[in-house]
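Question thread 4412

I'm putting together a teaching handout and wanted feedback from people who do this every day. The idea is simple: show students a protein as raw sequence, then show them the structure tokens that encode its fold, then repeat with a second protein so they can compare. Below is the first pair exactly as I plan to print it.
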Amino acid sequence: MYMRMQENFSGCRVLAYCLMGNHVHLLLEVPPLAAGGLSDEELLKRLRAICPEGVVAEVAKELREARQKVREGLAHETLVTRIHERFTYRMHDLGEFMKTLLQRFTRWFNAMHKRTGTLWESRFKSVLVEDGIASQTMAAYIDLNPVRAGMVPDPADYRWSSYGEAMGGGPRGDGKKARAGLVRAIMAHKGYEADARLWPGGVSKRYRMILLEEGEEKLRDVVSKAGKVEVNVVRKGMRKAAVGAEMERLQRSRDVALGKMLRCRVRYFTDGAVIGSRVFVDEVFRLCRDRFGGTRKDGARKLRGNGAAAAGTLWSIRDLKKGIE
């Protein structure tokens, strides 16, 4: 609930998420604030996501009075701008999104469990992720958290994740927000907007294939009583009823290895700092050249250890040497 409230207020988009017992994973898109800023109506709409109606009414009154003074020549337009800036500095900003979300959750958790003090061990870690294969791989890695932890055999069975919400609707809605986020994560490189109506059919099937693929298919011929041969697809670790006809053989052998990789903990996805194509990572390195040593010539580093299946497709700006298996 707090995550969606903050999403509606901040303008940041939650593309994928998974709430585990002691940590949370989020894939966020942080678009810039529109060049012309927000209209008064849009500002008030966003405030309603996190503020009581009484607070919103007071801000609305303040804006009306400021606009009236500007029209009468009694004040400069900056009077209205300053009202907007009291709230917009917290929008379209990763740090502010996480700060508010974690603070609100901590207050709720402390009240529920009659405790005080901090809840989170340390500051959140972030990784810059490129559109395309990087974003869809990261989304799948996040949604597969409960499968890797042995909590469920199928990511659709875990309700506290983007995929679980997209498939089951969640306790407070129809899963529209989750489906829209996953559409954006999977298809952003093709210019798709975050539209839940695009989820049925090809997009949902493509993502399901990514989630379920973990190795080579085993085909077993079963002779029925009628003498006909049926082919069943068997996959290790997944419920047979959950796969079968919905799965297709992936076109490239690299995709099979990628599926295996997603079943493992890949430290690059939490500590890699920047993840994407070689061109993308090198461009980020160029823009942030002053943050690196003078002897370093480029930014892209091949993934190793559990991430090696994506080497050559995905690159990291950090060359991790320990704890990558």
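The second pair follows. I'd like the answer to focus on this one:
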Amino acid sequence: MRYVVILLLVANAVYFTWNLLSDSPGPRLARRLPPIPESVRTLVTLREIREADKQPADMSEVEAITQLEPPGAGPALGCLTLGPFLAAADLQQAANDLDSRGLDAQPYEDEESVEVGYWIYLPPMEWEAAKKITAMLDEKGDEEYYIGKENLVALGAFDTMDRAKIRFEQVRKYGLEPLLEPRYKTRTVHWLELETTGNDRQVMAAVLEEFPDIRLQNAACRAIATQDAIN
């Protein structure tokens, strides 16, 4: 039995050596894959696209083209705006002046925040803390306060910084640490808008002389775009 095992080992060694040194490797089994369905799209490399359509295959070239002509790029429609007009009568006068010069300006309204003074206050706090502070103010005969949203304690509003500083120092003498900040309000303003052409600025400069408080600036078209959508 031992001789049989040795004989098998020798035969395997000979077969292994013959396959290793043979110039023509033995036949291998090949696995046949099923064909790709027609509905499945195959991957195509950028190099293959270039060879087929003469397109640039280098990514730097593609990026350069994208920067020059990004998707959806087109001529931007720019406008000039004239304003703001606080009174509708002034807006109409300027619009009539532009119309007499051959310029069709579209009006639109906007809102802006303007500084109207200063105010002093204590930041929001717990209700009990706010009541304690107001009780102290009542004891000092100080009635220039009110409790606002989230228990904010307002200590006065002023038109000028000088008056605000006097009140600020008075409150600090009470042992409080108030904040002094600008006060703003929102107002409605009127604008005129027209599409830009080469001579618009020269024509509108004459209108600016009649209204020294208004300004001329570049802006994205909004009133004209809205008017076109309506039409």
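Top answer:
Good format. For the second protein you could add a caption like this: Residues 46-75 form one domain. DSSP finds eight helices and six strands in the chain.
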